[in-house]
Specification:
Elements (H helix, E strand, L loop, with lengths): L3 H14 L4 E5 L12 E2 L2 E2 L3 E5 L25 H15 L6
Antiparallel strand pairs: 1-4, 2-3
Helix pairs in contact: 1-2
């Protein structure tokens, strides 16, 4: 199972590897400005969320949307690990079908 630091590093690496497909954000930044819930691993906790899309295909009003949440319970690692691995799979296997 992935810990907080590994999840954070992995998401940032995916953002570097697939800059046209994934953006990493923090709920502590605007527009949400949520307070940190404390410390996670070696750093201050931040609720991380990502947006995965092919920006070149926007706007597409018929595009389906899907919300995934891996952190239903904050102390469980299966959900976040599964979500990160699913994101990795989607990005690795993405191909444009135009």
């Amino acid at each position: 199972m992935l810990d907080y630091d590994t999840i954070h590093e992995t998401l940032l690496e995916l953002e570097l590897q697939y800059p046209d497909l994934i953006d990493v954000y923090y709920a502590q930044d605007a527009p949400f400005n949520l307070p940190s819930p404390g410390s996670c691993g070696s750093t201050e906790c931040k609720q991380i969320y990502v947006r995965v899309t092919d920006e070149t295909t926007l706007p597409d009003m018929d595009r389906p949307e899907l919300f995934l949440s891996g952190a239903l319970h904050g102390n469980e690692r299966v959900g976040p690990t599964t979500t990160v691995e699913f994101l990795r799979f989607l990005l690795k296997h993405y191909t444009k079908s135009r």
